[in-house]
Amino acid sequence: MARIRLGMVGGGNDAFIGGVHRIASRIDDRYELVAGALSSTPEKAKASGEALGMPRIYSDFKEMAIREARLKNGIEAVSIVTPNHVHYAAAREFLKRGIHVICDKPLTSTLADAKKLVKAAESSDALFVLTHNYTGYPMVRQAREMVASGAIGKIRVVQVEYPQDWLTIEQDFKQAEWRTDPARSGAGGSTGDIGTHAHNLACFITGLEVESLAADLEAFVPGRQVDDNGHVMLRFRGGAKGMLWCSQVAPGNENALRIRVYGETGGLEWAQEDPNYLWYTPFGEPKRLITRGGAGAGDAAARMSRVPPGHPEGYLEGFANIYSEAADAIEAHRDGSKPDPAVTYPTITDGLRGVQFVDACVRSSARNAAWVTLDR
Amino acid sequence: MARIRLGMVGGGNDAFIGGVHRIASRIDDRYELVAGALSSTPEKAKASGEALGMPRIYSDFKEMAIREARLKNGIEAVSIVTPNHVHYAAAREFLKRGIHVICDKPLTSTLADAKKLVKAAESSDALFVLTHNYTGYPMVRQAREMVASGAIGKIRVVQVEYPQDWLTIEQDFKQAEWRTDPARSGAGGSTGDIGTHAHNLACFITGLEVESLAADLEAFVPGRQVDDNGHVMLRFRGGAKGMLWCSQVAPGNENALRIRVYGETGGLEWAQEDPNYLWYTPFGEPKRLITRGGAGAGDAAARMSRVPPGHPEGYLEGFANIYSEAADAIEAHRDGSKPDPAVTYPTITDGLRGVQFVDACVRSSARNAAWVTLDR
Amino acid sequence: MARIRLGMVGGGNDAFIGGVHRIASRIDDRYELVAGALSSTPEKAKASGEALGMPRIYSDFKEMAIREARLKNGIEAVSIVTPNHVHYAAAREFLKRGIHVICDKPLTSTLADAKKLVKAAESSDALFVLTHNYTGYPMVRQAREMVASGAIGKIRVVQVEYPQDWLTIEQDFKQAEWRTDPARSGAGGSTGDIGTHAHNLACFITGLEVESLAADLEAFVPGRQVDDNGHVMLRFRGGAKGMLWCSQVAPGNENALRIRVYGETGGLEWAQEDPNYLWYTPFGEPKRLITRGGAGAGDAAARMSRVPPGHPEGYLEGFANIYSEAADAIEAHRDGSKPDPAVTYPTITDGLRGVQFVDACVRSSARNAAWVTLDR
Amino acid sequence: MARIRLGMVGGGNDAFIGGVHRIASRIDDRYELVAGALSSTPEKAKASGEALGMPRIYSDFKEMAIREARLKNGIEAVSIVTPNHVHYAAAREFLKRGIHVICDKPLTSTLADAKKLVKAAESSDALFVLTHNYTGYPMVRQAREMVASGAIGKIRVVQVEYPQDWLTIEQDFKQAEWRTDPARSGAGGSTGDIGTHAHNLACFITGLEVESLAADLEAFVPGRQVDDNGHVMLRFRGGAKGMLWCSQVAPGNENALRIRVYGETGGLEWAQEDPNYLWYTPFGEPKRLITRGGAGAGDAAARMSRVPPGHPEGYLEGFANIYSEAADAIEAHRDGSKPDPAVTYPTITDGLRGVQFVDACVRSSARNAAWVTLDR
């Protein structure tokens, strides 16, 4: 099967996430990166593209979309890895021209943009894949599979958190700068950057949807314009309840995304920093440690795994799994077939839910943590 | 120094916590248990007392208070270890007669009783010690000392939780029965039984007071009359914020009380099930593991410790520490002196705060998790 | 049942282990400490005894044995907690007079003394209990029970280690001084002080006996007269093999006694510093965490346990368990009955094996780690 | 810089390690796989090569070496990923023709082959890189850097182990088959397959060399022709001592390679299954957790790292690091320059030491664990 011709928007020299997407696309050798608008500054776009040996270099994503769509062997898919506020405009141009979009999260910086993008995607034949990369971890798939199979019974309680500490003090480097600027990041700070990951993970594993929430957001660092800590109580459709904590001011936490799900007959616990382990307790029995590839791990995890148990896979492999799921879907799309039903990736619907989550957090917090619904 | 003559109310044969108090009082050999009304059922009181070789056996705490107060060598202190709804009536009788009270938590089953008991204590020369035993763990003392000394700077965020799983299904044994009966336990279920511990621990370590809270309580098990899961957002006086989770329906959790405190310059993490460890991260430095008795542990922990580092002390030693602090205070009281300023134990004020916490949780939850203050 | 009248030899003011024995004897309230020769220095014996409110104070253990044996209510048992080289002489005096001996480990400082003490014990009607206290931990009992019941099949490999770090540098306080003096400690340094614990634990859990060993001992700290690090390969009767490491110069280790046992069908792992957990892996199934008092824990652990799961018990409770097993045996001895068959404690035979282990380590190391048998 | 043209010998469809090498070579995008003799069975070689879209397919490594050496754009380097006994013959052909060799470990299946290969490498201008991949983990580099900088002082004790459990019972699949066949694997079973990793890791981190060892090897599974468990005592040049345990019959262990190094002033601990953590204890201070990319991590780890702290890197990234070090060296070789002095990778000398280690283990064990030197 020929490799998928891939383009990239954003991800120039000093960006972080662009490099991650590129590695992720290479790990399973199913993509070939052939075009990019890595920066909107022409010199930087050129330098960054050349450093990567990129065949076709652009500095304008619209121009790139137009030209690539016309090429006989133009890109089939594009990765959008810009700051949040550019996602909508960029994605629209590619969707419009039938080029599949693999977009970083959150979907957009505003709810209005998110809704417009949903329409754009609905009008397009192209696929839309959102890189909520944590859903690519094998043991996250394992957890989802176990919940679906009834291993812990009807869910009652979800505890999810994503603490970091890098914004404990004021930071002035690039990553911090745009992530704390509401014009580029969106109205949510920690809620948008990492709270969305926590929200998405909770929904992905449980199969539940947040119906309403009550949020108490705070910007602890003086002068910060967006929240750097969020306390959120959740109510899921169907009666389950949850708590979500996101923070960028919790010293001692790097990327401590962690989820615990409790049902009528058992519990599951998973932590992103130790991703090859899933703790499972059937009520009344000893806690069990299920390892990636080890005894007790099922098909959903096995599909997402490359090396034997005890040889840890990490963040990049989880990210690569999203790219491989996308590759399955894109390859099926080439000939109009359907991908394997096991293929799963976050879609534009998940993206909209994420933006609605941030929007709801901000609205609730502005009303003294009143309950608000996500739908608006 | 002669051992303190101790009595006990409650704690008959099939009780759990009475036995714990008795061991705790023995570990440091500063008490002598000489009288008891271990049950209100005369036969059971007699059988339980005899089994313990108790010199003076009563079946009525009031009679016990009256008689002991008259004896030349009557009890100097009494441990009250009955179900919650009896605390007030029993404590009052001993306080009235100048007998020191060591009372299990929560202080009372109702806020009205708590307030009356505060008055009774204020009118008495006797001491009142509340066994919020988790405050007796050496590394909890260590954490409190570090916060007070500024090791983590001004506090921003407190995450505290106390999940259990024993009430995941309906239980009908004695411990479960009274703890899920609002008439005996109080209006709070998990909030009263374990949420109060979490609340107390957060305040003890941080030195902060909860100003207001928003609580979403739930009774997940059908037919249960009190909450078995509580999600609470906290606002502390001075601007810190927190989340508190208590649950009795979280499979895989035994007594997983855990607290994390984050300040402007560092973080602290402690878990009751692994109590000899305290994790400390000064922002921008590697995380450090401070062990009981090991390098980095200070005076406050050393006072509460019996054996060298690496030999774990546990729940009973922590409980015994409260008894020893009480013994220091009682011995000082004997001759009208003041105990060592380092002596620290939970008082009736902490008890009132705990009952106010439960009351606030119940009130907030009844109003759809509206913010309510603790003072009422 | 009347409490057992207990005496103590050694354990004066500045000793460590004496205090531990006293707490251990109190926790379950089955002993009453009524006599002591806490020091061979009369002033110190007096001061130490008075500080404890000891009714009868001696400064000579022989005199104590003679007098107590004559008293109507003299001691029924004696705890011997002196430095190792005194164990033999002291124990002999009490055994000779029918007073039960509870003796700290190692049994003696020389193999000759150990053999003489075995004879003394055989000639006496009194019981001899050796406080290899780690065998008192509930989850050690659990492990032993599981091995005996075949949960891991025939044993192949035993990995046991006991690293500490307190002698990483030269120390001059009392505890270090006698433990590094071969005249008082015996020919083994780390092997005698902690290697014996590791050896004993391995045998206790597996039910196996070490047939031969090859040891490479070293004194890393200049001028030290006894080993501070020992590497030992073990061959058990029946074909199992093992490795044993003991060290007092391993920075970062406090009392990190840890054992791992692997059989034909499963594995078990336990660590003294986290004693409430036992890890169990049936081959081909996920690893399970068995907790003290939790699901999967059996009768052997339950007998040794006081509080519910999730409330950690520690070193002192494990030590107290040895005292309670001894109390069961002593009480049965009072009326000539047999104790409950479940009663288990280390005996003089275990003590002899321990001294043989140290002797074998020293002999082997002197012969460039040649294989030597323990029997001699 | 043009990507390095890479070939591969071995690694056909049903092999495990070939796929790992291919991913490792892709992660940092510095290699292009253009030729392969993936199997010695022509049909399988063809099918495997086509499945990978391999431009030039061979079924004979000698033919491949000859032809590629003649091509203008023939391969610059070859990865040899066959069973051990083929390493020597294959590597020789490429070295002879100036093609760099990246070879899986152990170097060869016999000591004689190893010595011949050393000569072949010495006679060649080409580079020889041995994929002792665990040395590619960032925190292993961190440990090595810390030891070299004196962070733990002069080394006294090294504890290293590599337990697995997959051969607990007889297995008949391909991976098990050749690894337990002395003709293909070499005289060492667990010692050759994983003991060499442990040996190499100990030497890599400490900078020490094993002078002599005493080994007690065993084949626990009936009928097995090579050891499946090895107990080894080590003596390093300069006076440090160590223990090494390798096992394939330890249920509950997947790839539990773990090393602990203790020096005069501190200790270090690292475990392969949790590779982003390094535990560091300066004697007399609290234990510190150094994380990949976090505070306390230095240049040696940073060079080997792609994503921020808290986003785990794993086995494949560690493997890729070896490939990237090799790429640095190969690129420098292209123009006759020297690579950055920081470039570090296991060489043929390390490979010879590994084979000598296995040889010494087998010789020692045959002589009842007598001490033997590695040099022979």
TrEMBL record, chains A, B, C, D:
Q: What is this protein called?
A: Putative dehydrogenase
Which residue numbers delimit the Gfo/Idh/MocA-like oxidoreductase N-terminal domain? 4-129
Question: Which GO molecular function annotations are given, in alphabetical order?
Answer: nucleotide binding
Q: Which organism is it from?
A: Litoreibacter ponti
- Domain GFO/IDH/MocA-like oxidoreductase: start-end pairs: 140-269
Question: Which InterPro entries does UniProt cross-reference here?
Answer: Gfo/Idh/MocA-like_OxRdtase_N, Gfo/Idh/MocA_oxidoreduct, GFO_IDH_MocA-like_dom, NAD(P)-bd_dom_sf
